[in-house]
Amino acid sequence: PNKYExxxxxxxxxxxxxxxxxxxxxxxxxxxxxxxxxxxxxWVFLGHTVWLVVGTTSFLSFGLWAANSxxxxxxxxxxxxxxxxxxxxxxxxxxSATPNWKDGKIRLNNVHVVCMPRSExxxxxxxxxxxxxxxxxxxxxxxxxxxxDELTPKAQKRLKRMPWFxxxxxxxxxxxxxxxxxxxxxxxxxxxxxGIRGIIDNRRAGWNKSAVWDAEAVRKSHIPGGFEMDxxxxxxxxxxxxxxxxxxxxxxxxxxxxxxRLRRQWQMRILTLFYDTLCADKIIGSFDTSLxxxxxxxxxxxxxxxxxxxxxxxxxxxxxxxxxxEGVSMDHVHRLGPGPxxxxxxxxxxxxxxIYIPDEKPPTVAQAIFQVFKQSLPQSIIxxxxxxxxxxxxxxxxxxxxxxxxxxxxxxxxxxxxxxxIKGVVPLKIPEFSYLNSAMVRPVIAYxxxxxxxxxxxGRIVMSLETFNGAWTIHDSTLGNRLNECITTGxxxxxxxxxxxxxxxxxxxxxxxxxxxRNIVSLHDTLHGxxxxxxxxxxx
Length: 540
Description:
Blueprint: H1 3-9, H2 13-26, H3 34-54, H4 56-69, H5 73-88, E1 91-100, E2 105-115, H6 118-126, H7 153-161, E3 164-176, H8 178-182, E4 188-201, H9 215-218, E5 228-229, E6 231-242, E7 250-259, E8 262-263, H10 273-278, E9 282-287, E10 290-295, H11 309-314, E11 317-329, H12 330-333, E12 344-358, H13 365-376, E13 382-383, E14 389-390, E15 397-398, H14 399-406, E16 410-424, H15 441-450, E17 454-464, H16 479-527, H17 534-539
Parallel strand pairs: 4-6
Antiparallel strand pairs: 1-2, 2-3, 3-4, 5-8, 6-7, 7-9, 9-10, 10-11, 11-12, 12-16, 13-14, 14-15, 16-17
Pfam families: MDM31_MDM32
Keywords: Membrane, Mitochondrion, Mitochondrion inner membrane, Transit peptide, Transmembrane, Transmembrane helix
Subcellular location: Mitochondrion inner membrane
C-alpha cells in the first residue's frame, strides 16, 4: 500500500505520525532495525558535523535563535562570556547575542571587556586614580586592594603580564570558522567592532630602571589558537591612554580602520600584531590632537631613490603603505630613547614613512622539500672571517650571497621627518653612541636652534622581519631605536654638510678676496705707469 492508503487506514494521531516519519525513509511500514537506526544516526550526525565545520556561523546562529526563542538568552550569554573570558584572559560580559542572518554573522551587543583589578576600576570611575603609582621592588601590584578571586597565583600572573584596560563596545559582529580553530588560527575569521570607549592603563610598564632593556625577552610567544583574523574593521573608537613616569594622559581615537589581516602571533612566518598594524589597508585617527593615517599611496612612475611599482614587485614586495602623523608633540618623541630627539625641549614633528611590504606567499611543496633536505645535509665549511667563501664542488659562492639567501625578505621604511618651531638644549649628561661623537653635541644643538622654523630629515630603515616576532609595540620590535638612530644620523650628516659647506665658503671667500686684491694692485700699477707689460720685457 502507498502512503495515502496507509493514512486512510490509520487510527489516531500517533499512527499517522509514525506513517509520515517512516514512509519517507523506508517506503514501507515495518519496525526499525539496528541498521536503520545506525544509518539514520550516522546521516544526522554527519550532516550536522559538515554543517558545523563548513558553516560555523550559521550553525551557531541557529542555536542562538533557538535559545532566544526558548527564553534561554541569559544562560547563553553567561556561558559565552565565560568562554571568552577563559580564552582571552580578560573578563568579557555582554548584554545579548543575536544572529545577523543578512550578513551571516553573530552580533554581540553592549560588550564590556575588563582586565584590571576591581579596586583600580572603581578609582577610575570616581576619578581618584594616581598619576604615577608607587612600585616597590618591581612589585606591580604593590598597594592595590585585590578581591578574593584576584589573589590566586593564576589571576596575579595574568594581571602582571597583560596590559590593563576597561573598555565598553556598542556592538561586535563576528564571523566564525571551526576549520580555522582546528588549524590553530582561532575561531574568529572576521570581526566588525563599532563604538569603543574606555581607558587603557599603561602606568606600570617599564618600572625596572636598573635592568637592561631586552626587546626579545618581552616579545609574545606563540600560543596555539591565538587570534588570526582575515578581516577586522574598527569604527568610532575613543579611549584615554595613561602612560608611565607621570606622563600626561592623552586621548586616542580611531575614526575608521580596516585590516586585511590581524594576527597575535603567526607561527609559520612569525609576523605579529604591530607589523599588521603598520601594513593595514586604512587607518584614520588621532592621538593627543595629532592626526595620523595609514593608507596605500599611488606609486610614482619614476622618482629618484624610491622603489617604483615594477621594481618593487621584482624585488619581492607586494605593495606600499604610507604612515603619516601631523603635529606630534615632542613629549611623545622623547619616548623614542636618548639622543637628539630628547634634546629638543619644545616644538612639533611631522612624520611620514613609506613602508614596503614583503610578499608573504607561502612556500611551494618543492621549496619546502628543498628546505628540509638542505637542513638535513651537512653544513658547508666557511674559512676565514669577514667576507669568507663557501667551499662547493663548483664555483665558490660569496658569503654575502649566503646571508642574503637566508633572509631575503626585509622590512624597508623610508622616513621623512620635519621638525617645526623647535628649540634645542644641551643635555646634562651626554650619552655615548657609536654613531654620534661627543664633540658633535654642541654643533648639533646650534644647528637645531639655527634652523628652528623647519628642519627636514630623510632616511631609510632596513630591518629583518625576525625583529617583529611577537612584537606588540614600537619598542618590542626595536623600531623605536632604529628611528632614533636614523634621526640622529640625519642630524649629524646635516651638521657635517654645513660645516663642510662653511669651510668651502671660507676658502672661496679667501680666494676671491686674494684675487680682488691682486687685480686692484695690477690696476693701480697700470694707471701709474709702473706696470711692466709684455713690450717692456721684450725691450730688455
